[in-house]
Each structure stands twice: as structure tokens, then as C-alpha cells.
Known about the structure:
Number of helices: 17
Largest sheet: 6 strands, antiparallel
Amino acid sequence: MARHSLSRRTFLASTLGAGAALTLPYPQGTAQAQSRRETLRHVTGGAINTLDPTMLGSTRESFGLSMNVYDRLMTFGSRPIGAFATFDPTHLQGELAESCEISADQRSLTLHLRDNAVWHDGTAVTAEDIKWSLDRCVSANSLARPQFSSGSLTTPDQFRIAGERTIEISLPKPDRLAMANLAMPYAIMVNSRLARQHATSDDPWAQQWLQHNTAAGGAFRVENFRPGVNVTLTRHDDWHGGAVPFFERIISQTVPEATTRAGLIERGDADIVIDLEAYDIMALSRRGKVHIDSVVESNCFTHLAFNTQSAPFDNVLVRRAIALALPYQDLFAASIFGRGKPLYGADWSGQPPAPDFPQPLPFSQNVQKAREMLAKAGHPEGFHTTFSYATSQTTTAEPMAALIQEALGQIGITVRIDKLPDAQFNTMQARRQLDFYTDTAAGWIEHAYYFFYLYFTRDQRWNFSNWNSPHMVELVEKARFETDEAAYVAECQAMLDLLVDQVPLILLWQPNMDAVTVPDLTGFTYQYYRQVDFRTLARS
Length: 540
């Protein structure tokens, strides 16, 4: 069954150590061979640590799993790119919702549920379930609550049952992100009758139980779950949120060592992996035994961040000097072997930039101007600083750090390199204790306003540069509720101009996602949450 379009706008029982061998015996006999054909084996370097993606501390792998297990009211469409596809941020369509009506003043959404939607236990999805699930998103202490607030969804009284299969959502103002938030990984629709059986007075939203159990109705059921080790899924044949998936069974296994994951795919002992290192991708490509789909992560960006509230990076001239000193092309080649899209070297002369983010910015290397700018900033002899990165980023960040150290040394800045364990890096980043560092970020809703709201305003974790710009806040607040499209474009262009002028961080590139598969696997789709969508995959 096609999705309804809406207008408007024990792989193995043990965890594997580094370098360990993993094989899965091929089935013998006709029935077993058929089972092998209809079983997908996925390996990942990350870990699924919860079945509830809204829980604090959930991993990206947990988000990806939930997209296959739970339904949401909405989902993004897809568009083909050669032999594979990518999500379409401009087109929202129904998953549990069959249709949606938007009021003339854009302050009310009316969603009608599909009449054939059932939970995994076979009971019908009801408006009461949807109301309870939405209330949970804005009430429980979870990751869903701040995400929903970005679309002006903040209180249970905004969600009203308007019929047996109808939900009305009211907004205080027109908000361009309200509907998109209904498609986010956190926006899981829960079988409330089942979940409430496991709720308590101390845990009214059954958060403890749902970490290790599901009350879902998506394309796959959870058959077995070992946190941080593996998960086994089986197909939900009564799912009607899209085309029935090809695979009857999914086995997803955590394999920490990248070279081990690469070997599994090349030997045919696994079917798909999306998180190999660039040098492994290049080696696999040369040997030609696997299929590789490469797509730029359009909603992602790697960057250099400054703590703009800490000297010397509180001085915009210092930040501009560093932006002029960097060897962008060398960084791109050394860190990710050019496998991605550069976000530097743009020419904005003669016309305003498109109202998009991320996009290439007009930064390029000019060492003489960098020296002059640094002297103008009051540092003619330079200064000492520390450049930090997380251990998990070593493969890309280590060559980056060496080149930055060398380039800044040419203008008098002495750089000490600090590689930090991930937990320490994340803690120091959240506490604003890193003055100069690299990281990679992604926005789930591909609107320029959303990126600027998330990464360049407010005293919160994702404001990487600890930037406090009243003008940016003013522009973002205007764009958030803007109903005139021309005015919205102008506001986004002003945000971009301000970013380039003030340089709170420096965009470097958008990396590729490289989906490495066995040759007979088809149907890969790049999704904004940057994990595998098992629903679209098939064997040729």
C-alpha cells in the first residue's frame, strides 16, 4: 500500500572485541536458504542502548531502530538519486495519519488516522492512543520535550480528540516546524493500553518499562534485545504505513572494530554497514567485492568551534584571522579523503546567498591577511591555545589537528593538541570548557531557521560556540513564525551574513554516508537520522 501524500506546504550471542573474527554459517537446504535470503544482517560500530528513543542518553543507533519499530503520525517522502534514494525534506506525508488539514490561520492541524492501523498485538490504533502519546512527548522528562518545543508543541491541552480517529493540534502562533516535529524519531506513537499497564505513580509514562520493551505498531517487531550487543527484529505483516518490507527478519549486531566490520561485509557474512572509515571504503572499492552507495549527508556539517565568551576567541578579529589562515583543501583531503561536500570557498559576490543551511561559505586561505588581522586584533606575536577533539574522531581529527597546528603556527599561534576520551570531551563541551575544537553536527529538520535556532542561539548544549548575539536571536524569532515567504528568505539570508561576519564557528564540509552492502542488496535510502532504514531494503 502506498503512503498517503499530504499537501503543503543472535547474529552471535556475544559482543566482539577488536579484531575478532565473526562468521555466520550459511544455511543448508532449501528452507534454510530461503530464510537466509529473507534475513538481513546489519553490523554497526555503535550500540542500541534502549528501545525508547526519547530516553535521556539514547544513542543514534537507538533512534534508527525506533524508526523501524514505531510509527509516527508523519514521515518525510523520498526522492531517487541514481540507484538509491534520500529523504525529501520538502515533502511530508502520512504514516499513521491518512490525511491532514491545516487551518487558514495556520494555527490548527487536524489529522485523520488510517482506519487499518493496528498495534503489534493486533489491537486497533485509536485517537486515545495518539493523544496519550503526544501528551507523553511534551510531559515526560525526555528528549522529546525540548524537540517538540521547537515546533511550539509544549502542553497536553494542545492535543484534542476530535473524533474516533481524529486528532486536532492547536498552535499559539503559526510555526513552520510544528508538522515536521511529528515525523521526528522522538515522536513515537505508543500503544497506550499496553504501556499504561506498566506505568506507576512514580513513572506515569512507563519510561522504565519501555526502555527494554515495546508498545509499538511499526514495520518490525522486536523479537530479542540485548542492550549494547544485538537486536533481532521480525516483520509486522499487518503494517500499512508503507510498502510491506522485503525482509522477514533483521539481525543488527554491534561490532566495535571498523576493520572487522569491513571484513564481514567483504566476506558476505554481513549485508550492510554505514559507519566504516574512509580508508576502509577506498580499499573495499578498489577490491570490488562489495557495492557502495555514497551520498552527501545533506543535513550534517563538520566544523571548528570557538568559545566566543572566552579570550582570545571573544575577539571577532581573532576568529576572522583563523578563518583566513586555514588550508581548507588540505584539511578536506587529509581528513576524509575528499569524500564529501566542501563548505568553504563560496563566491557570494553579485547576489545574496540562497536561504539554505548548511551551504558553502565565502572562506578561503590568505595567510598574509590572516597575519594582518591577528595584529589588528592585538596579537601581533600570536598566542598559545589548545585544539581538542574526541577519541572517537581520531581517524579524521588527527590529520586535521596536525594541519591546523602547522597553519596557525605560520601566523604566530602556538597550538597544543588535546585528544580527549569521548565522555570527557562531551562533558567539557556541555560545560563550555573547550575553547577551540572540532565536532560534527546534524539537524533533523532541514530548514535554515531550525539550524540557526538550534546551533546559534540560547544557552544550551548545541550552541557549540557559546555565542550570544541579540541580532541573531531577533532574526531567528522573526523567521520562526514568519508566514510571508519573501520575508522568511530575507531573514535567513541575514542570518547567513551575520554568521560569516562574526565567525562563531567555521564550517568545513559535509561528509558522505557510505552504505557498503553485499552486491545483491538494493533499496538503500539515506535518512535524516543517519541510520539504516530496514523497510526499504531488498535482495535483487
